[in-house]
Design brief:
heterodimer; A: 10 strands; B: alpha+beta; globular
């Protein structure tokens, strides 16, 4: 079973992994990605950031991504939690945890989900630097990371 | 009515998060909604001008200029996404 949560509050990394891990004795591997806020971007110091999203569409877009991951690999559960609102450096922004029988599927699916989330889920970052506030620009590297997954197998 | 939503940089540039447009025969797709908004000139023309990357959605699904729009739909415009 897959779950998607968008929330302002911090999330408990250990609890999310533990709950996913103990869900099914057929699970042999759990791979977790955690994205956290950096204090530096484009060469500038960043003191904090605000994350905006499109309520409703964000959940739907993530659901499509998780369904596609399930279609491509034999998985036993995916958890995605993404924070919105105010964030400080070192704050975890997103967790993607994927369970499967063997590590190969879990590693690949976890990377696939975060790559697709970065280019397809409607979230936007605004960061505060000594020069003021600015919206973060999309990175070409993220588009390239998405594209290497192709159209599916 | 067609509910039109703006997010992130677009919302700030336009100074509004949402508005309602009267459904009309000429508002048949997303492209024609953009044409109508662009016709207001000023910042609207800037935001929806040539060379600007604006993503669009209809009823919370990714759309393009030719996606049909009808009464009761939710149409959203936003910049490239930067989550994760």
């Amino acid at each position: 079973m897959n779950t998607i949560q968008i929330q302002k509050e911090p999330f408990d990394i250990t609890a999310i992994q533990e709950q996913l891990r103990s869900d099914n004795p057929a699970i042999g591997a759990v791979v977790t990605f955690i994205g956290q806020m950096r204090d530096m971007n484009e060469g500038d110091q960043v003191s904090n950031m605000t994350l905006e999203h499109y309520p409703g569409m964000t959940e739907k877009a993530l659901q499509v991504i998780l369904d596609e991951a399930d279609r491509r690999w034999a998985l036993m559960g995916i958890r995605v939690v993404h924070r919105v609102g105010e964030l400080q450096p070192l704050d975890p922004i997103v967790i993607v945890a994927v369970a499967s029988a063997h590590r190969g599927e879990a590693f690949q699916a976890c990377e696939f989900v975060i790559d697709y989330l970065k280019t397809r889920a409607p979230f936007w970052k605004k960061e505060r630097t000594p020069e003021g506030e600015r919206w973060v620009d999309a990175r070409h590297a993220d588009a390239a990371a998405e594209q290497r997954w192709g159209k599916g197998r | 009515m067609i509910e039109v939503l703006f997010f992130a940089r677009l919302r700030e540039q336009l100074g509004t998060a949402r508005e309602q447009l009267e459904a009309a025969p000429e508002l048949l797709d997303v492209g024609s909604v953009i044409e109508k908004l662009r016709g207001r000139c000023g910042v609207w023309e800037e935001v929806f001008g040539d060379g600007q990357t604006v993503l669009m959605a209809v009823n919370q699904q990714v759309a393009n200029l030719t996606t049909p729009v009808k009464d009761g739909d939710e149409v959203a415009f936003f910049p490239q996404v930067t989550g994760g």
